[in-house]
Amino acid sequence: MRGQISQLKSPNILANPWFLGLTVRMIDLVDNNRLQRLVSSRTALESFGPSTNQPYLILDLDSCDGLHKIWLTDLPCPVLGVGKGSLADACDTVLPNEDGLAPILTNIEKAPMASMILAQHLRASEGQTHEDALTAESFAYATVQKGPEFLAWRKNHPEQPKPKQTPENPLTIDIDDRHLQLTLNDPDNLNAIGVPMRDALCEALDLALADIQFSRITLQGAGRCFSTGGEVSEFGDISDPATAHWVRSLRLPAWRLARLRDRLHIHVDGAAVGAGTEIAAFAHKLTATEAAWFQLPELKYGLIPGAGGTASLPRRIGRQRTAYMALSMQRINAQTALEWGLIDEILS
To answer: 272 CB contacts (<8 Å, ≥6 apart)?
Structure first.
């Protein structure tokens, strides 16, 4: 694992009083005394998470000692830490101060079920192999696909714009001796990964798996971005969670990328959003231009990363930074990505 904690500072419960015409969020940090009371009073786990007034817990790490790690990791909600301290490892993400908390809290409040499942899955899969983590991700993703938040999003967005006409070859393949070069080739649709591109990518990666002569596999995107992720108009097409998991176990490029990662070089220019970021993070060598940026926006749909990102990203930047990207939905620029270890080099 290349990366780990990026530290924070903040607590839990919130209110929104009006002050001079501005909405102010009151952040309730849990210090060591309050944490001790919560644990010693045997506060029920049902007091936290979806359908409660505590969809998250925010710890003031500067004041907390190292006790109660097990209690915290059992909570059915994201645990956010602010500052530094011995309980940082028990948090799902850690901030240096309260400044970055507002978008995270808002996103969790809008999708508390998906946020809980994301946090629990990242905790459970942290020590797993890529392949085992992918299996666990598929189960978790199938769960949120039939969860109330994604179903509500679909109901409120019944008609998503269909993609422009896709090229006959959404993935171009060039073979030069022992080098297999792949290019996502649907720039008019910002290389969104719909079924045709997904299937073409799986077939090309299967070729690489079957033929050990390819000592180097490269992947890039045509046009002004790497990929804006999964084709939104296809979200939720599968009828039930079991079938959704079955399809992913057969046709998810991440399964192939995980097995090819030692030979895989990916280059990102422009946006790598959702599945774009998740796929890129599998590379043994990941380069990017100064214009590259990375984002995990799945929570706004009531979903979690489902293209392999909960397996690929934690093994590059750590569980907590992965959770930060997913819970905040903030863009990460190339320089930050380099500092975190998400990318290995910035190329001009």
So the answer is: 225, 226, 227, 280, 288, 292, 293, 294, 295
Which residues 6+ apart lie within 8 Å of 290 measured at CB? 334, 335, 346, 348
In sign, the C-alpha dihedral spanning 59, 7, 330, 129 is negative
Strand ranges inside 1-86, DSSP E: 18-19, 22-23, 57-60, 79-82
Query: How distant, in Å, are the alpha carbons of 76, 321, 346 from that of 45?
Result: 7, 25, 45
Distance of alpha carbon 258 from alpha carbon 122, whole angstroms: 17
Specify the DSSP element, H or E, that contains 217: strand 216-221
| Radius of gyration from C-alpha coordinates of the chain | 21
The residues near 136 (Cβ < 8 Å, ≥ 6 apart) are 121, 124, 125, 128, 310
The model's pTM: 0.91
Tell me which residue has tokens 């599998």.
282
Least confident range from 27-41, 81-95, 157-171, 244-258: namely 157-171
Instruction: Give residue-wise pLDDT tens across range 4-37.
Output: 434 433 333 333 333 334 455 678 899 999 999 9
